Amino acid sequence: MQIVIDDSELQQKLNHAAQKLSDTTPLMRSLSLSLLNVTEENFAAQGRPAWAALKNPREGGLILQKSGQLAASVTPFHGVDHAGVGSNKVYAAIHHLGGKTKPHIIKPKNKKALAFGGGVYKQVNHPGSNIPARPYLPMDGNGNLQREAQEEIEDVIDVYLKNIF
């Protein structure tokens, strides 16, 4: 007696899965959008954990959102084997990681002199500023994901793999 097992349906599913896994660009696109979503939630929450407060808070002003340009500059990117988010703003990294700005000279833009603190000056030597880290991207300087990003990524991967199989 001979028993023949028809595994053609299983083979078809495995071939389909192999084909889907050979190009993970759709998965990476979804992951990059998830990272963008977590970043937007970080801005809305003013940090998770909360960012350092502003020295001179603006009335009703949100931290890192004076003009909204930094938050608006965050864009997702992806390829066949990578996904991420980033900003093209020159000041993006120092706000995310913290640091000290370089000493620089401040000169008046529209007037002949600068007036502050009871004095009038043609220029002022600024010693630089200490900028506290306010990590708005969903990863730290070493590439470690924040908890919310890790959870979102795991969910996206689970859904993607379930749809394949």
Structure report:
With 165 residues, the protein is α+β, with helices and mostly antiparallel strands. The protein has helices spanning 8-22, 25-45, 69-73, 92-97, 147-164; strands at residues 75-78, 83-86, 99-100, 104-106, 114-116, 119-121, 124-126, 130-131. The strands form four sheets. The protein has a two-stranded antiparallel ribbon with strand order 1-2. The two termini are 33 Å apart. The model has no long low-confidence stretch (mean pLDDT 92).
Fold topology:
Elements: H1 8-22, H2 25-45, H3 69-73, E1 75-78, E2 83-86, H4 92-97, E3 99-100, E4 104-106, E5 114-116, E6 119-121, E7 124-126, E8 130-131, H5 147-164
SS class:
alpha+beta
Q: Helix segment count?
A: 5
Report the C-alpha radius of gyration, rounded. 25 Å
Biggest sheet, spatial arrangement of strands: 1-2
Mean pLDDT: 92
The backbone outline, from C-alpha atoms, is: rod-shaped
Helix share, percent? 25-40%
The major sheet is characterized as: 2 strands, antiparallel
Beginning-to-end CA distance, first to last residue? 33 Å
Strand content: 5-15%
Number of strands: 8
Tell me the series of helices and strands, N- to C-terminal: HHHEEHEEEEEEH
Q: In a nutshell, what does this entry contain?
A:
Helix content is 39%, strand content 15%. It is built from 5 helices and 8 strands; from the N terminus they run H-H-H-E-E-H-E-E-E-E-E-E-H. Helix 2 runs antiparallel to helix 5 (147-164).
